[in-house]
Structure formats: C-alpha cells, structure tokens
User: Fold this.
Amino acid sequence: MARRRRGMMSEEFKVELAKDLGFYDTVQREGWENIRAKDAGNMVKRAIEIAEEAMAKQSQ
Assistant:
C-alpha cells in the first residue's frame, strides 16, 4: 500500500492560489483530487513564483 505524502502548502494557501487562478469553484464542487493536472501545475508554478519574490525581497 502506497503512503500519501503530506502536502507542503497549507490549505489556506492552496485556496488562495485556486481562487487567484480561477478554479476554486471546481475545488468546492468536486474536491482537490478532481482538479485538472494543468491547474495543479499552474498552482505549483505560482507558489514557486511567490516564494522567489519573497526571497528576492529578503535579500534586498
């Protein structure tokens, strides 16, 4: 039996990203497990962008 990895993003952050990217309605109706792979990829990409922006601000 495979173990599920615990997510790195908080639920609150995931919801914020889903709202910003426009697929939160799908999450509400069908749950996280039913979002498109493209949406999941865009969510990860945006999270990385946010982290990079925060790191850039810290180094200034």
User: Anything to note?
Assistant: DSSP finds three helices and no strands in the chain. The two ends are 47 Å apart (CA to CA). The chain has one domain: 11-58.
